[in-house]
Amino acid sequence: MTSETLAKTPLHALHLELGARMVPFAGYDMPVQYPLGVMKEHLHTREQAGLFDVSHMGQIVLRGADAAAALESLVPVDIIDLPQGMQRYALFTDDNGGILDDLMVANLGDDTLFLVVNAACKEQDLTHLQQRIGARCDIESLFDSRALLALQGPKAVDVLARLAPEVAGMTFMQFRRVQLLGVDCFVSRSGYTGEDGFEISVPVESAEALARALLAEEEVQPIGLGARDSLRLEAGLCLYGHDMSTATTPIEASLLWAMSKPRRADGARAGGFPGAERIFAQQRDGVLNKRVGLLPLERVPVREGAEIVDADGQVIGLVGSGGFGPSLGAPVAMGYVQSSHVAIDTPVWAIVRGKRVPMRVAKTPFVAQRYYRG
Prior knowledge:
Layout: H1 12-17, E1 21-25, E2 28-33, H2 38-47, E3 49-53, E4 58-63, H3 67-72, E5 87-93, E6 99-109, E7 112-117, H4 122-133, E8 138-141, E9 146-152, H5 156-163, E10 175-180, E11 183-188, E12 197-203, H6 204-215, E13 220-222, H7 225-234, H8 276-285, E14 289-296, E15 307-309, E16 315-325, E17 330-338, E18 347-352, E19 355-362
Parallel strand pairs: 3-13
Antiparallel strand pairs: 1-2, 3-9, 4-7, 4-8, 5-6, 6-7, 9-12, 10-11, 11-12, 14-17, 14-19, 15-16, 15-18, 16-17, 18-19
Helix pairs in contact: 2-7
């Protein structure tokens, strides 16, 4: 795709004004970094507050008395009992138990659910919802009408509370309607960096004014996709299409925690979602391969697609995500290895440009998550 054919977010002109280096991402022309540079952007977010444009993500609303039960039929997650004003991480699974996408689901009250899905999957997710549950609830795409900003870092709450003091009382995964600069927004205390922070859904026509107001605060810097990736990798968070896909189930992806207890095999509302039987069988019997954290023991970045071998040089897995962790001052990676090698501190090796790079299997997150739980 050329820059002319790529889609643009409502903040595109602002990114150019701020000196961003733009790259194609999920069909959009997106900022990968600003003049500050990826390393400093990453560390600034960990220390103060970073503003991310995530407007390429898909926002969808489901309405109707049956909306929660309908959506629950597509995800291994408790939606029926999701409290009003809360959001939950969820997974769309296919009939073979593979992961179609990961998403956030919030209960707005009044029989209304708000979904945020990945940019690369949003059209197929919308079609999936329409085909599977379109007869049970109203489905509205907000792809063209709302932008999405993420304000992340330990100072994010101080900054946003200057515009709306009530956000200071929110805790991790709470979701509410908030007026920012006189505009109705949806605000959740969440994000994908491992830091405290907020995601803000704002009408397209008000997005630039809000972004400029946030950037005017001394704690805030604009942050690009490069640092967003290194932040989420240090936090041990999966990126769809890299660390999970239709080829991996929630059990293989080490996402059992994301499957709500009422929906598991022994739960009150067990199964009823696509691929449940295979997922339950894997939970019971184990899997051949599983996602783990990996710490390279040399200062060599181990990238996506690198083969993982054992001491005998036998291929035992593949790297899903990898790069340099600025907070750690060392390379980090995640990948899939055979179940015989998933124990913490197991020695494994990555093949990088034909050479073996020693690694050890490690716990994630690599950097402690600092979500605000009150």
